[in-house]
Amino acid sequence: MANKFAIITGASTGIGFELATLAAKDGYDILVAADEALIESAAQDFRQFGTSVDSLEADLSTFEGVDGLLAAAKGRQIDLLCANAGRGLGEAFLDQDIAEWRKVIDTNVVGTSYLLQKVLRDMVARNDGKVLVTGSIAGYIPGAFQAVYNGTKSYVDSFVAAIQNEIKESDGVTLTNLMPGPVETEFFDRAHMLDTSVGADPKKSDPADVAKDGWDALMAGKAAIVSGWKNKIQSAVANITPNAVLAEQHRKMAEPGTAE
């Protein structure tokens, strides 16, 4: 119980897996969660670093799933939260199944907002704690053939910036937005995007590099970090580019059948 305690969501693979690895290496006891059974084997990997590791398979798109995650903390003070759980979805919006696009919104928007509200209340009350949220530079770009996902990340990016302002008097609490671009993870397979230009691109970011960027920014108390120099340029250009142009550019990356 002497170690600090961290919760990392979406930790079975990708960025979340790498964030959990960094937390365990840094001496945090961790509770890791994901919506798949693979989280159990991921937890085994994290135990090699000698801290306490608990895992939970949970649907964090629901209030019940988030409540179950917090209950699994067993009353321990949450010193660090990596709110990384997210869901993608490609293809044309009109062709998407309603249940699938609603799951994206419920996971990325509803679940993330609820988890942050529950955790940040306690952190702000004691004026101590760290939260890293996985947003995306996709939030700056109208996502043709990825419309719902990009819309949810626009919400996350804006939401985090707003909450940072609301809690600015709590100088002991750090809230950081990690904004990567395309990352080499299972995301594109799960989002039905392997036949797209961006899904097939072999030059996507390494999740370990993205996680390290986010971790370093969090520990330095930064408000936000865009991971990767190409993504920094893209996010900056997006602020001065008309939406119609951005949407057409995104279409070329995300339209099904564009993979080379």
Automatic annotation (TrEMBL):
* GO molecular function terms listed in the Swiss-Prot or TrEMBL record: oxidoreductase activity
Note the PROSITE patterns from the entry: ADH_SHORT
Q: Which Pfam families match?
A: adh_short (PF00106)
For whether the record's keyword set contains Hydrolase, the answer is no
Family annotation (InterPro entries): NAD(P)-bd_dom_sf, Sc_DH/Rdtase_CS, SDR_fam
List the keywords (alphabetical): Oxidoreductase
Family recorded in the similarity comment: Belongs to the short-chain dehydrogenases/reductases (SDR) family.
Check the record and name the PANTHER family matching this protein: OXIDOREDUCTASE EPHD-RELATED, RETINOL DEHYDROGENASE-RELATED
State what protein this is by name: SDR family NAD(P)-dependent oxidoreductase
